[in-house]
Specification:
With 281 residues, the chain is an alpha/beta fold. Helix content is 20%, strand content 30%. The strands form 4 sheets. The chain has a 6-stranded mixed sheet with strand order 5-4-3-2-1-14. Strand 4 (98-107) and strand 5 form a beta hairpin. The chain starts with 6 loop residues before the first strand and ends in a 22-residue tail after the last strand.
Length: 281
């Protein structure tokens, strides 16, 4: 499939039980294949979709972590073979310097890319190592795919870097608890003129005497013009799908003489160029 063709996108919104990855993967499989036609070009699953999120110790993280080619890779590969899709999903990945909050993009037997979350949220910083590589853009049968995870979205430079790298579609596994995420991603889509595919989870986790985490759901597919093509419920597991045309993200124009990227002035964006008390002309 080239970028000039329609692309069917599928988003999984699940409610994982903490610490039971086999059960959670099976629940995702059942949800996906309950559809009349599960075939797709891109399937996006949430952040840490098979483990749960609210860890209480490094030991738990270690127990639930995997190598890149572990059980979650095997599961994503199986789903890809059955659906024809590029499949993206989040998991704790074993690295030489620790464990990352990561995500894989898989096509058939191939690992297209492995990404370690660059911007860790709150208590994630107690358990995971930060990623130190640029956010990835990888070639797929439907064109360049960008990948980021949850809190990355709140850093405008993150999605901008993916768009500048040529991504027309951005897969965004998430475990959102902050209420403004869905609306914020609309702006990210508009300011970069890309499709954003956010897969969030639902449910509540309250473990180890910690404050409860309530996941807001509202997984969504957003167009380069900021149209919410599909959005999931805020409280239940479900599948949302849409057919998009990635080539619509190639143009960065909002008017005949206004192009988001052509008019960028990066040489003027450094705060070091602004001096207190100095007026600009």
């Amino acid at each position: 499939m080239s970028s000039a063709h329609a692309l069917r996108v599928t988003v999984v919104q699940n409610n994982p039980s903490f610490g039971t990855p086999e059960k959670n993967r099976k629940d995702v499989e059942d949800l996906l294949f309950s559809q009349k036609d599960p075939s797709s070009g891109l399937i996006v699953l949430p952040e840490l979709f098979a483990t749960g999120y609210q860890f209480v110790s490094k030991e738990e993280v270690g127990t639930l972590s995997e190598p890149e080619d572990g059980p979650t890779f095997a599961f994503l590969s199986s789903v890809s073979k059955r659906t024809g899709a590029v499949v993206v999903g989040g998991l704790p990945i074993q690295r030489k310097n620790g464990i990352s909050n990561g995500a894989l993009a898989v096509l058939g037997d191939r690992l297209l890319v492995s990404y370690d979350k660059v911007h860790l949220f709150d208590r994630e910083r107690d358990f995971f190592v930060e990623g130190h590589s640029p956010l990835p853009v990888v070639e797929t049968p439907f064109g360049p795919l960008g990948l980021m995870i949850c809190f990355d979205w709140l850093f405008p430079e993150a999605l901008r870097s993916l768009a500048l790298g040529g991504a027309t579609v951005v897969a965004h596994p998430a475990n959102w608890v902050l209420p403004f995420g869905p609306q914020g991603m609309i702006l990210r889509s508009v300011e970069n003129r890309v499709f954003t595919i956010t897969a969030n989870r639902v449910g509540v986790e309250e473990r180890g005497g910690l404050a409860p985490l309530r996941y807001i759901g509202e997984s969504q597919i957003v167009s380069p013009k900021g149209e919410v093509i599909a959005r999931a419920d805020s409280s239940r597991p479900e599948i949302i799908t849409a057919t998009i045309r990635p080539e619509e993200a190639l143009s960065k124009k909002v008017a005949d003489k206004s192009d988001f990227f052509a008019q960028r002035r990066p040489e003027l964006y450094s705060p070091a160029l602004t001096q207190p008390g100095r007026k600009s002309s």
